[in-house]
Amino acid sequence: MAVEASISIIPPLIMGVVIGLIELFFVHADENFKGSHWLGHGLHALIFSIIFTFIVFNIDYVLSLVKLNLQYAGILVRLIVGIIAYIKIAGSAAGAGKAIREKVWHTAVIVLLIIFSNYIWKIIEPACNALLTSSFCQ
Question: Is 100 in a helix, a strand, or coil?
């Protein structure tokens, strides 16, 4: 009997936008130049944060796609997503040259937020439900 995994859309979208904005603020804080170039270098953070959080929130669905039946597959997927996110963030900062030098702890914070985003959501979901309609948050 196959178990169908459900897909979560709104919570990873909200968390991805929040994490992307935090990364954008970190890029702005780490900028070494004048002007608004940090915005162009940092906007991709929103898209990738949403993609990474979508994967983390929907690990069961992702595992059903790749047919990975390991005992700790969820942890493995989170680690892989974290490594890819770290490489992406560090690579983006390095690709920008001397203009943006993102601090290592900023990168670590973003990666940890991405890896644990579904657990963080479980903590802040009651506040979201209190502020918004329950159908929007679930």
Answer: strand
Between the alpha carbon of residue 94 and those of residues 16, 25, 57, 91, the distances in Å are 22, 17, 28, 5
- DSSP H helices in 31-103: 37-42, 44-57, 59-66, 73-95
In the numeric block, which tokens belong to residue 96? 């920008």
The string of DSSP letters for 103-135 reads: -HHHHHHHHHHHHTHHHHHHHHHHHHHHHS-HH
Least Cα distance to 49 among 80, 83, 76, 85 occurs for 85
How do residues 80-138 score in pLDDT, each as one tens digit?
999 999 998 887 765 555 545 567 888 899 999 999 999 999 999 888 777 766 555 55
Q: What tokens were used for 21?
A: 């904005």
- Packing angle between helix 59-66 and helix 44-57, nearest 10 degrees? 80
Neighbours of 33 (CB within 10 A): 11
